[in-house]
Amino acid sequence: xxxxxxxxxxxxxxxxxxxxxxxxxxxxxxxxxxxxxxxxxxxxxxxxxxxxxxxxxxxxxxxxxxxxxxxxxxxxxxxxxxxxxxxxxxxxxxxxxxxxxxxxxxxxxxxxxxxxxxxxxxxxxxxxxxxxxxxxxxxxxxxxxxxxxxxxxxxxxxxxxxxxxxxxxxxxxxxxxxxxxxxxxxxxxxxxxxxxxxxxxxxxxxxxxxxxxxxxxxxxxxxxxxxxxxxxxxxxxxxxxxxxxxxxxxxxxxxxxxxxxxxxxxxxxxxxxxxxxxxxxxxxxxxxxxxxxxxxxxxxxxxxxxxxxxxxxxxxxxxxxxxxxxxxxxxxxxxxxxxxxxxxxxxxxxxxxxxxxxxxxxxxxxxxxxxxxxxxxxxxxxxxxxxxxxxxxxxxxxxxxxxxxxxxxxxxxxxxxxxxxxx
Length: 423
Known about the structure:
The chain is α/β, with parallel strands linked by helices.
């Protein structure tokens, strides 16, 4: 698919039509540059993807929360386009222990454990594995750690960098999008020159400018912004001429993709006593990484319980396949709410970011001791090759807001460098 006004000889090529690529293209167009965005898949949005075919209402396979600073342009874009933002800054919770609702004392213990855990990791001066700081013998601490590591970062505690936790900034906005965050991202890209179904195989930056080699032919430009995932980069899917410096390749390898798999279960309208938009959590009595699914109940009022499985368990469940995943999530929900819920489940769907060749995971997570790899990739190569994406999202890694901030920043660097060359 090609959008209107696709230039044949762009000044700048942006690789990837996800949040970072869309932000970069918007900024460069605002500066008056000719831009072409090339995207390997057949759609716009990257890891922001909403579809309604499965359940008959929007389901976000990828990012679902609009989170980050208050000046994020997606906020005003959502309101002007008539999207419904559901505040999720202080979401309801439903905590369970052994198949029954947790007592008020247990809820207090869980809240205290979660708060202590975040404070401990965020205040730790060194970049170490989070597992070295956590005693998971406490069932409530283990539950909080499962959310923080496997589900928030997509990796187990042993693979979670304490520095990745410490870097996060405050949220001025934290909202679900009733119509789907992926739909909002697609809407935000309206009018941009995007060419989908265009697989980039190489980038030649040996001379002045850069040549982007694709399966549809070569594209010559003054500069290129690469926004593909670290998983795609580490797979060496794009060949660089000359080859990238060793420290750049090492930085990509030090930012492997974590995985968060969603297993969405559609119900027949039964609500099981759960509120809408609630996080459903159980005590973790097994060793970490727990073989557990936690849930978001009835997001935006839809008849859906979305199960989350992260880290090594997510890779296992995705490899087992969708039928096994749906059965697993159903059993997990039944263990929390009772076996009667099985008769209320109508349909399920599993996401598959790990096996997606254009992502190879959900979002990047720095290896313990390797958090500085993010900074390495923020530097341009030869004033011609620039990198951007959620992995370089500053205070908002793994989020759409981080991808946007990174893409916008890369575009500004490109503009400044090209302007200096012509002055």
